[in-house]
Amino acid sequence: xxxxxxxxWIDYLATIDEAKIEASRRRLxxxxxxxxxxxxxxxxxxxxxxxxxxxxxxxxxxxxxDFDENSVLAAKKLRSLxxxxxxxxxxxxxxxxxxxxxxxxxxSDIVYSWGVLxxxxxxxxxxxxxxxxVIKNGYLCxxxxxxxxxxxxxxxxxxxxxxxxxxKINKIYAYFxxxxxxxxxxxxxxxxLKPMVAIGPLLNYKADRGMNILNDxxxxxxxxxxxxxxxxxxxxxxxSKGFEMVxxxxxxxxxxxxxxxxxx
Length: 264
Ligand SMILES: C[S@@+](CC[C@H](N)C(=O)[O-])C[C@H]1O[C@@H](n2cnc3c(N)ncnc32)[C@H](O)[C@@H]1O
Description:
- The chain is α/β, with parallel strands linked by helices.
- The chain folds into two domains: 5-147 and 226-263, 3-Layer(aba) Sandwich (Rossmann fold), CATH 3.40.50; 150-222, no CATH class.
- The chain has helices spanning 5-13, 18-31, 50-57, 69-81, 99-102, 123-132, 150-164, 169-191, 195-203, 213-222, 231-240; strands spanning 40-44, 61-66, 89-93, 108-114, 134-145, 243-249, 256-263.
- Strands 3-2-1-4-5-7-6 form a seven-stranded mixed beta sheet, sandwiched between helices.
- It binds S-adenosylmethionine (SAM).
- S-adenosylmethionine is lined by residues 5-6, 44-47, 51, 66-68, 71, 95-97, 114-116, 119-120, 219, 223.
């Protein structure tokens, strides 16, 4: 069972504007806090392509790939809307789980994969394959769903149901559940006399990675296969592969932990 991410990225593209691109660029620099100018940059599971575009704008030479044809179409459309050349930004269909496909890539200065490897169905293999693409002294940036114990198991079922429902109904399911949990969160913080803790991030939504709330709701409720890991487990695993964690943006909730690793 697999969620068709690409349709959602095509929808998202219709809402993109310069403010969202700028937000994505700021956020990229927050986690990949190294100089990108002239560096080779692979974006695994590029989705809409907005973060690849941010890397191009920072001066990197980018190769993006995604498993979903519609993600590839969305990223190519963004590249053409932004008048970026194929030399600076290559985009194609590819699978991070296919070692045969990955053989075509030279090892790269930066390998970036945000919110992807946990959706492949074989997360640890996907992490290993992504790590293998990093050159010595290069960097691996990954964002992986936080392991929340029983809550993560609950979300697995919620997503499983989304993907079992007929198309069209599943979007209604996502919007309905999304609004319900947002309402519960606002209620919780209003009772704690801190409503802005819940309302603030909603008002400021596009400032975070330049995303769009409705597309993110569908992405969250639909995103399947779904795996997760703690920062500790990821750090331990990547240390055994010769990487050192040099930057992290963590969450104690249901989102992703973002990590930057340096290959020593
Ligand atoms: C949640 S989206 C994240 C998109 C983008 N990285 C971002 O941060 O906006 C996950 C993306 O991973 C892609 N994906 C899933 N499995 C993949 C695989 N095995 N190889 C490459 N891409 C994959 C999906 O098609 C989807 O576009």
